[in-house]
Design goal:
The structure is a homotetramer of 347-residue chains. Chain A is of the alpha/beta class and 347 residues long. The first copy, chain A, folds into 2 domains: 241 residues, Type I PLP-dependent aspartate aminotransferase-like (Major domain) (Aspartate Aminotransferase, domain 2, 3-Layer(aba) Sandwich), CATH 3.40.640.10; 93 residues, Alpha-Beta Complex (Aspartate Aminotransferase, domain 1), CATH 3.90.1150.10. The first copy, chain A, is 41% helix and 15% strand. In chain A, the strands form 2 sheets. In chain A, strands 1-7-6-5-4-2-3 form a 7-stranded mixed β-sheet, with helices on both faces. Chain A has a 3-stranded antiparallel β-sheet with strand order 8-10-9. In chain A, helix 8 links the parallel strand 5 and strand 6. In chain A, helix 3 packs across helix 9 and helix 8 packs across helix 11. Chain A starts with 12 loop residues before the first helix and ends with a helix. At the A-B interface, helix 1, helix 3, helix 5 and helix 9 of A face helix 1, helix 3, helix 5 and helix 9 of B. Chains A, B, C, D: Keywords: Pyridoxal phosphate.
């Protein structure tokens, strides 16, 4: 019953097998090897973007911060949700990589609305050089609160960005979970709706530590390459990043893994709803935010469940606390059933 | 006959086996797992530094840039060799991570002399706020030109730094090769001679991509932790960095791998010297810099050797060009013999 | 009827006279001259802080950004009001000077409440290295909406900062106006209530362009000096900054000028209130925020008044728009009377 | 006999008079006032560059650092002389403003040679992303060692930059002294020979603290404006910068002042040469570098001369030490004669 995070599970066998295959003889460093080139080509094909610049980095924070640094000058600002990972969980990495840009928070929840985005950008338009220059709009799909933007919602946001001539960054740490949930192609959820730079995440979906940054305008490639090296994210033994991504792309493993995680998420939502438990996110992929009395949280954890709760477990038993359940690809249906049974027992 | 670099060979079997062992079930992210904690303890033990702060990062550039950022304010300067990796091969990473510090080059070759270091620091002492504040001294061991500082040479450099009250950073991308060559312990080649922050490299010596940063003053730990996260080098699935390092430490694998590479280096030096070829570095570990006429380089490469040459292979056959041979752990004696035979044949 | 800003009026005669006096013969550059030293001493005396480090810079943004850079690491965050000048009007200068720190906005209006400040700091305490390190609390006195914190309100805010061990920065661009309004000494409104670094503004109160940064802990002096030079704010002909400040301190000119501006502010508040006009700021020094119908704004401006209005002057005549009136030291009572008459006429 | 620096003398009367004239009534802040606009137009006319973007900043370091930040990305490098002001006297300001760019020093003295510049740029061309991207070439005219590049020498340097497609920055802190010395127009010494961004210095030539940055490609204007504000160098009371520059341009005051300073320089060179004293700089404007025995330096200073000497005045009387004489506009011929007499007496 481990639902703490999707960065805590093991990697599937094909990833280790691919690493083993790649570990043969000599290969040129820094991404010049055949495997790295081939993997980049496969991602271009997957995104139906033959001219895209594609780069592998080891962490999602690196992918986001490097992408934003290419889209936002140091005297600019990035528009994002108040709970965006780039704002809440990257310890100033976007500010660091951009050389001092701001993040301007769009009022509301995890899903930005086009109205709030438009109003926020417009408000930043009024101060000339006294305020920052308007920079990229950053969208997180799946959001940090477990919701999946619909395609219409995404289009509405990118349309606002385009109205102001601003580029769009997609934080796709859980890109796979969203694409599977919406049953769309990577192209449909990126450049076809106006995304300029897309992070195609692998780490939260079963890889040891690889994210692909897909830049649809190749004119931005050189800057990214220098910024990646300067940020110490260009691996000398690049084949070991490429090998993980190769396995991820092979036989749509990325879709398979995301599908498993999403199914567990659905099983959780249905079970909790049937049990009369309030679920916060009205859409979902592999994360569920829900309420239980503190006492029930304690009982469920005592039964062996691991997950994150907002607030201390010490306190009045009947006080409601929000919990977060995250399913990685390896969670078994039995684990979900056991969790739901524990919730029932605690109810 | 592959002597292009020590970042181009495969990793030894124990590393893959350790990754496979580590890939079992769930573990807490971001280095909070037992394996990561255990590996840090082993490094503290290896360095005889029970209070040291120890961190794993994926690249040598990250290790150097983060270490220097903790030792040098943005208005300071780092003293290093003109051919130091931090100056020549990290695309401004130290400047970036430090927030704009300078590198002040100590005149001379790859091995700084205490006299040149002292004179350079003294010269920077004269301009008050018009020049940068004096910052750390950065020493590369093994140097970028293949030389190994003797213990006396290292002590002489750290003594100069201490005379000015400056901290010392050791770029140990090839720490293992040097320690084996000098037959000293990690403690002897670091804090016991005045090194404040030491990079214990793994990538160039057989790992996929892991370096340990050992900070002997634990008061500097918090800053490093925030800087590592901000720089996007804190891995969520940290166990896969730890697993590589675990294998590296097990049964002194790090010494074994470095010993192999150094032996090939010795074999090359001896063979080239016997063949009357000029070898540049008067000491060596696993790298050899040597001169051959351009025509001979062409012939040796035609015979199947791969290595770096300074200058174009197109030109007068009799012009002398410097070549660089780097042995990784996996180079076989037969490959060296074949290379030397090719040199003889080309002579 | 010029109420657009307190950076648009002329400087008083004593400032020009002091510049003329200072313009005699040779003097050492970069602040080493006797006048610069003497002015620093006078400020130390004024603040009853014999050990304080005191520096002159030409702009308020430079004073704030340099002060914050000394108080906040690049991986930290500054707590301030959502309408703070450092957030809204300095084009990322704090982010730039600090090397990428964040500003965390304390929910509410221009006057932070201790409750909101405490809750905001506490919320930032929970994420470890995933969020920024907690940094300084920045207080703007007079606020950007014209309010003057009472001494009790200031003490309550600094007390919260101290509870978390955080330093306090006071943006005193209008320090003089506040001190005169509250009838307190510079010491009482700074270090005696826990301010660590205070900006003693001159530019908005009659100088051409000089602000003093008063750092009560001299251990922070060296860092400030290097940061000021690095930021290109160390004047070679420093005597011309010092001369302005000398005139400002002579015979309490700074109090005299602020007193004049504040009196005009009071005259405006009283007149507008009597006229039944809503005034937003419940306390005031030299700024008044008020509501008039758009048509009335148009009529008052047609009568010759100059001031800032939130929103376009084109639109329905009866829609209420907020205006801002700022009195500099040189505004005459007659100008205020004329303005109030114009408002009456427009009513 | 004050020859310590050209930032230590008084400003000429017209500058104070212009400040007094400008100090009349209200004017819009931040450079929107008529005087500021007019002064920018006059500089465009002076430079025969009707489309140029022109900005005033208070210090030469600000002018250089802002200009370089617009010309060099954070992952780039600036090519300059080892004694360039941007390298030796700006405490990492170019590194700070650019976000971490390097300065690559062109071997040689204060005057770069086209051969050395070409070789240095070519050497930086070889490392791809491992080294920085090639950035602007920065030329200092008059050099920091008192020499004045001939027009042919300048053309040779800009030609090398253009061969590599690199922009050219001219540090013209002493632009006026050079233009008068060479008897050329500002246009001839800037865009007509390939300078992209020119600093037209005023501070060292008689102003309190104003430099004009002339950007010949207006497409770079917006970036400069945001960077200037972000760096806290946009003055609210901009008219007081403009007023100084207005006086400087009126009746070619800038040429008059530079002419005076240069004449004193010539008087010094001739007198010293006649006295058999070695003068280092083979060309000159208002600075002279010369050798005297330590004892003679002591005697000349005892006679009342003030200037900078390389090395301590304590030591063997007969050891040769280099001294630097700088003439500002206000130095009188009598002061030079007195100095030369003191040298004779000390001989």
């Amino acid at each position: 019953m481990f639902f703490a995070s999707d960065n805590s599970g093991p990697v599937p066998a094909p990833v280790l097998e691919s690493l083993t295959r790649a570990n043969d003889g000599y290969s040129i460093g820094y991404g010049g090897d055949a495997l790295s080139q081939d993997v980049a080509d496969r991602i271009r094909t997957l995104f139906e973007a033959p001219d895209a610049a594609v780069y592998l980095v080891p962490t999602g924070t690196a992918a986001n911060a490097l992408a934003l640094a290419c889209l936002c000058p140091p005297y600019g600002t990035v528009f994002c949700s108040p709970v965006a990972h780039i704002h809440e969980d990257e310890c100033n990495a976007p500010e660091f990589y951009s050389g001092g840009a701001k993040l301007t928070l769009v009022p509301g929840g995890d899903r930005m609305t086009p109205e709030a985005l438009r109003a926020t950008i417009a408000a930043e338009e009024t101060r000339g050089v006294h305020g920052p220059l308007r920079g990229p709009v950053s969208i997180t799909q799946v959001t940090e609160r477990g919701n999946v933007y619909s395609m219409d919602e995404l289009r509405a946001l990118t349309a606002v960005a385009k109205d102001f001539g601003l580029p769009v960054h997609l934080d796709g740490a859980r890109f796979a979970n969203a694409a599977v949930k919406l049953d769309v192609t990577p192209a449909e959820m990126s450049w076809k709706i106006g995304v300029d730079v897309c992070v195609f995440g692998g780490t939260k979906n079963g890889l040891m530590g690889v994210e692909a940054v897909v830049i649809f305008d190749p004119a931005r490639a050189q800057e990214f390459e220098f910024r990646r090296k300067r940020a110490a994210h260009l691996f000398s033994k690049h084949r070991y990043l490429a090998a993980q991504m190769e396995a991820y792309l092979q036989n749509d493993l990325w879709r398979d893994l995301a599908g498993r995680a999403n199914s567990r998420g659905t099983q959780l939502v249905q079970g909790l709803t049937q049990a009369g438990v309030r679920v916060h996110n009205d859409t979902h992929a592999n994360m569920v935010f829900f309420d239980l009395p503190r006492g029930a949280h304690r009982a469920v954890m005592a039964a062996g469940a691991t997950y994150h709760v907002w607030g201390s477990l010490d306190g009045p038993a009947d006080e409601m606390l929000m919990g977060r359940l995250v399913c990685d690809w390896s969670v078994q249906p039995e684990a979900v059933s056991a969790f739901l049974a524990a919730v029932q027992a605690a109810g």
